[in-house]
## 1
Amino acid sequence: MNFIRPEARAALWRWRELLGALALLALGLRWALGGVGFIQMTGWACVALAVILGVVGAQRMRFRLGSGGPGVVQVTEGQISYFGPLTGGAVARSEIETLRLDHTARPSHWVLEQPGQPPLAIPVTATGAEALFDVFASLPGLKTERMLSELHHKGPHQVVIWQRSPEPRSLHRLH
């Protein structure tokens, strides 16, 4: 039996990381302020962990713009796959050269470019698109806060979120 309305369940699920961090914070504060010795130290460690989880949870929550958009995203061992109604494809995380956000499309799309392949456009509201947060956050040098702020900008524009820096050319001596 379902005791929670689907809308309430969806709202709770969206806030899940922050609610978990809040519960850990409450437990940590109780142990830190009411315990002694090892329990007190564990409480303060829980408080610190709760703050970190809260920050990460807030970022993840801002990344989720909803679901039910066209297509399905799967991330498996560094491989991003998108199965859409009209297009689709796959990109290896290690092969991504450029990550763009295209606000001219409806809904907005993440555009992943890799050498020798056509760009892969993934709607931000595609089912499973929240898994892209971890992939994007692991790109070297990507500024997560900038990505999140660009995600919430309005107006028809495209913006490069991340671009792989060119590999330094090795110097080959002829003699």
## 2
Amino acid sequence: MILRIIFCMSALFSSMPAISFANNPKVVVIGGGIAGLTAAYRLQKAGISIDLYEARSRIGGRIFTAKINGRIAELGGQNINDGGEAVNLNRLIDEFALQRTSSRVYLKHCYFNGTNLIPIHEILKKRELDPAILKQELDRLALTSSSMEEVLEGIVSSQDPLYKILAVRMAAYEGGTIEKLSPLYTDTLFHMLLGGICSVHQGNRNRTRSRGYGGGYE
């Protein structure tokens, strides 16, 4: 469904002539993800001439839908609401008269060590990470690092299986490899290290142990 929004936007950009006014400068939008496409679409609807630039060979950003053996597979973002109401995205869906479908998927994350599948929660349970200390250390690393790769290396050895697990999970959830992700994504790493996914999908250990050191992680 999200991919259809992107296709609708692309068709509109190619079919709608940009209206330029004498006193209106051309606007440049950097990035062809859902945010960039929406911004460009809204600006063009307002009669403003825009140029949109995307570094990749495709548009969509974190939204990446593929057909595999006749089935639709989401290789990027799969959760529209992500703990909220997704007001703006749902407004676009209504505007393009698209049909909504929903499904519920239960995921069990495991690490394959070459012989056995080990549930990730068992690996994390052995770490006994204190949320307050972890948050403080991640905040410090975010200020001194240039990427999430440096942040992760400051927490876990690159030779540790947990490093590989978190690198893959971060890339899958945030839509980019850790060497390209900004240190601003340390909040996601924080919740993953405590058994969750992000601030709106926290692990049970995070919810119970984080009480009392900050309302932001209740």
